[in-house]
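Journal club prep, shared notes

We agreed each person brings one worked example of a sequence with its structure written out as tokens. Mine is medium-chain acyl-CoA ligase. I'm keeping it raw so we can talk through how to read the token line rather than staring at a rendered picture. Sequence first:
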Amino acid sequence: PSRAFHGNNRLLTSQIVSHYESINQGEKEVPEYFNFASDVLDKWTQLEKAGRKPANPAFWWVNEKGDEVKWSFEEFGSLSKKTANVLSEACGLQRGDRIVAILPRVPEWWLLNVACMRAGIIFFPGTSQLTAKDILYRLQASKAKCIVTNDALAPAVESVLSGSQFLKSKLLVGQGSRDGWLNFKELL
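Then the structure, token by token:
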């Protein structure tokens, strides 16, 4: 299966390179607006549905325990749309608003990233090694209206929230719940 996956990947890569070469040579126009979520992910979903693209995973994540998450283009697109709805409806974010995500590289990190592209929300990633002082600096400098973190990092975030005047919502990725936090998995 991995040999077939990599072989198909080369085919798709050559198609992408060919597309960009035709733009560089003036054969195709550069789009005025480009959105990875709609211009790439959704297009590949259409190709997959029409049988014109093999059903390879769009996203394949494996952790150190061997747990896997595998999404097709259609699944990844659908989940990113749902995530964009969570950000705009439950969190009250609009195009141009900023979100700080302090998460390890879990599947939700990529969902949030693509959902922000889809919705025009500015995504500020932060490593899970940030200190409370680092978190406060990022919240103040970015003027973020939303912060996303997990159960383990939420206490560090909460310790500096009084210093963040722009924050409107807090989104928790994980199994637990905390007072004043929205639970991502429940909302999704």
